[in-house]
Amino acid sequence: MLNSLEVESALRAEGFTLEINNAHAGGYKNAEGILVFVKRSKEFKANPRIPMFKQPLVVHWSIKETPAFAQLQEIASSINPLYVNHNMRGFEEPYSDRKQNGIAINVESIDHLKEIIKILSAKQYIPSSSYEDITLASSSLDGVPETTRKSIVDARLGQGVFRENLIKYWESCAVTDCTVHKLLRASHIKPWRVADNSERLDKFNGLLLSPNLDLAFDQDLISFDDKGNILIKSDILDRESLLKLGISENMKLRRCEAQHKIYLSEHRRIHQF
């Protein structure tokens, strides 16, 4: 059984970095934007080498609403789905009195930790709402001037400066050339949750899309290659579905600059195209 110090060391070895350094919980995040916490002892400030032994790893509360929760229960010898720790910034639950809560788990070994990370990395665990994305990213917004912070949050909501810049740049849908701005969505190419603050506001990390294309792009059903040609997951979207959605295999971005290609490469990698 790994204690808290061993779990922290193993997380670092798996590419996680310490994002939230609180007295009784350390928050670690990886490149995919997955945030987990590791419990710390009451004596941590005086002696950070004193470990915690019981269920040292804490994952986000929202996983309880996904099939991944059953998978965790299958592989965990001890699990507490009602763990609360006010040091876990970013784990606030909306519309609930149980703030900053999560699911605490025993970690049997490094291989067991890798199995847990694999479950968390599945698409089913990625936050599905803008609220969750914003709360999970709260640490990256610390110290950011209020005006900039508002622009970054607005960008996740498809509003504000980010949207205005996309409208100025694209003028119409990046694919269909539809000019009804009220219908068009400001969509991030490299997802907001894994982008840094400058990327979240970069107009080249955005596409102005009609609603059907925006949702398909966000839900990893379509992407675009470096020439702007549409890529479609045909095992999910067959020809009949494409016809009903108004999506064509011949579609392409109206422009695709070098800066777009960097972000498109990330989108394809993250969504496995």
UniProtKB/TrEMBL annotation:
Top EC class of this enzyme: hydrolase
GO molecular function: endonuclease activity; hydrolase activity
The keyword Nuclease is assigned to this record: yes
Domain HNH nuclease, first and last residues per copy: 173-225
Protein keywords: Endonuclease, Hydrolase, Nuclease
EC identifiers of the protein: 3.1.-.-
TM regions (residue ranges): none
Cross-referenced Pfam families: HNH_2
Superkingdom assignment: Bacteria
Listed name of the protein: HNH endonuclease signature motif containing protein
